[in-house]
Write a structure and sequence with these properties.
Blueprint: E1 2-3, H1 15-24, H2 27-40, E2 49-50, H3 51-65, H4 72-79
Antiparallel strand pairs: 1-2
């Protein structure tokens, strides 16, 4: 049985956070913001998620909230990127 679900909307940066990144000149934050805005403008997916897909997404969200993440450097070491 396919389950139709909506993921919570990602948080929107507050005006002060955006202005701080501009004044500090951090390219990484500006690039992340640009990528985030591109994601917001992607067409909406119409395909329903399977129960397994919903469980996998929830597991990833739970891992992220619990701090079970990897740094970019750890990923590059592991996969030789």
């Amino acid at each position: 049985m396919a389950v139709k679900t909506a993921l919570p909307a990602p948080p929107v940066a507050r005006r002060t956070e955006v202005s701080e990144t501009r004044s500090s000149g951090t390219r990484r934050t500006a690039a992340r913001r640009a990528a985030y805005e591109r994601l917001l403008n992607l067409p909406e997916e119409r395909e329903e998620l399977s129960e397994e897909g919903v469980r996998a997404l929830q597991e990833g969200i739970d891992d992220f909230k619990a701090g079970r993440t990897f740094t970019r450097e750890e990923i590059e070491r592991e996969f030789g990127a």
